[in-house]
Specification:
CATH topology of the largest domain: Neuraminidase
Low-confidence stretches: 1-22, 210-216
Mean pLDDT: 85
Shape: globular
Structural class: alpha+beta
Helix content: 10-25%
Number of helices: 6
CATH architecture of the largest domain: 6 Propeller
CATH superfamily of the largest domain: Kelch-type beta propeller
Strand content: 25-35%
Order of helices and strands: HHHHEEEEEEEEEHEEEEEEHEEEEEEEEE
CATH class of the largest domain: Mainly Beta
Largest sheet: 8 strands, mixed
Radius of gyration: 23 Å
Length: 376
């Protein structure tokens, strides 16, 4: 009885201290709005462990949002590769607290990630990030139909999902990319192969003030591809210096490459040096630097446009068989062949890396870097 009483006293004391912490000012002698301006200049990792009020501040809508890692994850609970596998969830990894958090549930959607006819491969879910949002664009539903007639958009700052405008032709196994705040979709197939869809290109501009991801607004049709060779795989169209760069197959196989000039609505040939070194997943950092992983050798490389060549950045055995990658603010994040997530800080000298463990029971399908979710 004495232990229970003393435990109750301790809990009341902790509750009282928490109440006082919630009521105390952020910085003694300063109004909270002025204190926030001062604390906003400090890296959130330095604020996180100081006190509860500062911890709450860095997750508030008024504090400048730091970047977090977002992941589309598939459940590994079904180990039978001959069965349909359509269980996916969405997570955000907070680099300050080193904690995974599930995103709010999206609108009802049904994806097929595995099918008995394709035992050795996963069916792709294609997604991009644009204007601080996560956009799901293409995937496969049952009977090999396109799963998304409309893009589905997640806004981390409001923690809400919304529908984008309906695609002129819903598709899967297409090329998807972002340039200058607009989403581009090229090629792909619908319920069956169609040469018109396989050569078509569409654009959705999220930076247009009247086009904020609401239902009912149209995609803009653009100049067509010369052929339908880019409908064979789910392809990342990498945005770099107001152009989109894409290859028609993944991995180290021989491939063809094309470049789309977004300002002039014109297709061009990919430079020889670029296509020769495109030997794995690729991503652009802030649309200024292209990185690629040579998945056979486990080397992260950077494209040097002036010399049309690739420079070695980082060698790591864990990069072999890399499946997907994203890049922003000096970090390259890679889905490795074993399902792990390798983060490479390319701004450090020498370059450093570390592993982010996936949530238990999940493997990443794709990674994105977006502002952290706020406490609203």
């Amino acid at each position: 009885m004495e232990d229970l009483t003393s435990g109750s006293k301790r809990r009341r004391l902790v509750d009282s201290m928490n109440d006082q912490s919630q009521q105390q000012s952020l910085l003694t002698g300063l109004p909270d709005d002025v204190a926030q301006l001062c604390l906003a200049r400090v890296h959130p990792s330095n604020l996180y462990s100081v006190c509860r009020s500062w911890r709450r501040l860095i997750y508030s809508p008024s504090f400048p949002p730091f970047l977090s890692l977002y992941a589309v994850m598939r459940s590994t609970s079904n180990s039978d590769p001959t069965q349909f596998h359509d269980s996916i969830d969405f997570f955000s990894f907070d680099p300050i607290s080193s904690h995974w958090q599930t995103l709010p549930s999206p609108p009802p959607i049904h994806f097929v990630l595995r099918h008995p006819s394709f035992i050795s491969r996963n069916l792709p879910i294609q997604s991009v990030t644009v204007s601080g949002r996560l956009v799901l664009i293409a995937a496969t539903a049952h009977q090999f139909l396109p799963a998304l007639p409309n893009p589905i958009v997640f806004d981390p700052l409001t923690q809400t999902w919304d529908f984008g405008p309906p695609l002129t032709a819903p598709r899967r196994w297409c090329a998807t990319g972002v340039s200058g705040g607009a989403v581009y979709v090229a090629s792909g197939i619908g319920s069956h192969y169609n040469s018109e869809i396989a050569r078509s290109v569409e654009k959705w501009d999220l930076q247009n003030g009247k086009n904020r991801g609401r239902r009912g607004l149209n995609w803009e049709k653009l100049g067509i591809l010369k052929d339908g060779k880019f409908s064979r795989e789910a392809i990342d169209a990498v945005g770099w210096r107001k152009k989109l760069y894409m290859v028609n197959v993944k991995g180290i196989a021989a491939k063809e490459g094309v470049v789309y000039d977004v300002e002039n609505d014109r297709w061009e040939e990919m430079p020889d040096g670029m296509i020769c070194g495109w030997r794995g997943p690729a991503a652009a950092m802030d649309e200024e630097t292209i990185f690629v992983v040579d998945e056979a050798k486990g080397i992260l490389r950077r494209y040097e446009g002036e010399s049309d060549s690739w420079a070695d950045v980082y060698l790591d055995e864990r990069l072999k068989q890399a499946e997907q990658m994203t890049a922003a603010s000096g970090r390259v994040c890679v889905v490795c062949g074993d399902g792990g997530i390798l983060v490479v800080d390319v701004l450090e000298s020498p370059v450093t890396s570390w592993i982010v463990e996936s949530p238990v029971g999940y493997q990443p399908v794709s990674l994105h870097i977006l502002p952290r979710m706020s406490n609203i």
